[in-house]
Write a structure and sequence with these properties.
By secondary structure, this protein is an alpha+beta fold. Helices cover 45% and strands 9% of the residues. It contains 15 helices and eleven strands. It is globular. The structure holds protoporphyrin IX containing FE. Protoporphyrin IX containing FE is lined by residues 64, 89-90, 101, 108, 155, 275-276, 279-280, 283-284, 287, 343-344, 347-348, 411-415, 417-421, 424-425. One of its GO terms (biological process) is xenobiotic metabolic process. This is Cytochrome P450 2L1-like. May be involved in the metabolism of insect hormones and in the breakdown of synthetic insecticides. InterPro entries: Cyt_P450, Cyt_P450_CS, Cyt_P450_E_grp-I, Cyt_P450_sf, Cytochrome_P450_fam2.
Amino acid sequence: VLRDRRPRNCPPGQVEIPFFGRLPFFDEKTAERLRTTYGDVVSCRTGSFRTVMLFDYHTAKEVMARPEFSDRPNFFSSFSLDDQKTGGVFSSNGVHWQHDRRFVLRNLRNLGMGRSYLEEAINIEAKALVEDLKKYGGEAINYPDSFRTVALNIIWQMVASTRYDLRSREVETIYRLTKDFQNNFSVLSFLPAFIPALNRLPKFFKNCLFGDDGLMNFVDEMRKVVNETVDKHLEDYDPDNPRDLIDEYIKDMKESEGDDSSLFRRGALNQIVSDLFGAGSDTVNYQLKWVAYLLARYPEYATRMQQQIDAVVPRDRMVSLDDKPSLPLVEAFTVEMLRYSSMLVFNVQRSATRDANISGYFIPKGTMVVIANYSIHHDPRYWDDPHKFYPERFLDDSATKYTAPKQGFFAFGSGRRQCVGELLARMELFLFTAAIVQHFDVRPADGVDLSQEVIVNLGGLRAPADNKLIYRPRN
Ligand code: HEM
């Protein structure tokens, strides 16, 4: 019990039950309560993990930039598809992370991230999305799977040269398993990660208590998809014609054959592919649900965006990135959507690699560091009327120019582990939002009241609850 106590000069926090700590939480309300009671730096503990939560933007920026807070917690690698559990970008650490992150950034850039020629690929998906939504013929529908497939198609073409038809059966298994996992998800699902001893429970109990099977089935299916994709690339590999990120990796792997110190390994490649599949498609999918929800809830913004688009883009042409300066409200709408939705309630966890100090408090090695993104995005110190959806906050006084947020914005994290897909995600959100607005009036179905914002929280991922919306083609 003594060893388990909160160390001296640790940040303040709730009373902790010895050995167990407190149940993990993933919602913004609990975080806000902690901030109100204990201030901008709060500590809490679940099982063997102590967490420090930061609520102040400037402290968060400074801490995320420090090398001693660049690691992810070890439990992230539990589900790694790498047999050595060290490779990949999202969950890896140290030299393996540096190596794989550098590879991914270089290749995403070479494959068009942030460049206008990727726009063509995004607009092919945008057109496919428009056609898919038209097929519903004005029927009221939940958020369609095509939101996910268009996002998946962009990243999957860069990674594996593969594009799925928006109504293809091939992606259905993955989507079904994701939904099964999400339906069985509860706060308890994460307990074994925090209290490793629970992993020793018999499988039957683990499944009943933590819904283990759903997660494992999903991981197994991902492993199958990734293995098949990489195997096929190895079979067809032509060193003179690398087609995508997997081929580029195979090229480096072949060139370093015989070098035992090389970090180009099949296991690491598998994990990189899986990271990009998940981080590159689910994120944009959930943000597109928010776009649709907010368009239906605030049609006045949709109308104003339509006026801006109609003034510069003929209806038979898709909006392009060159149109951006003429469409400041579209950009302001997507950035306000990122802030307002705060899809990730907390930034992805980091871990202290050594004993450290934050704002004068002692932070023991191994402490998880979490940034309260939702709280920062709704903090009146940085935002006027923070709970109001107000895209104008990102327009200049004449409302003719987009102005980027200067502080208080954390949607893509910060520092050495900042999102590698930010440029890509911003391009996608701008072009997909513009495509939906240009072609549809999005409205709630009869009887659906969007003012009661009902949120589904999946382990810290906030999404609007399924709402029947109508995508009515514009004349
Ligand atoms: C709107 C969509 C997206 C949001 C809101 C988002 C947000 C984030 C956040 C908050 C982090 C953690 C950063 C940190 O620790 O400070 C992250 C990491 C990451 N994101 Fe994104 N992301 C999005 C889209 C994408 C896309 C399209 C890709 C695909 C290329 C991607 C790939 C990654 C990867 C690989 C990491 C891990 C980086 C590392 O640990 O070094 N993300 N993202």
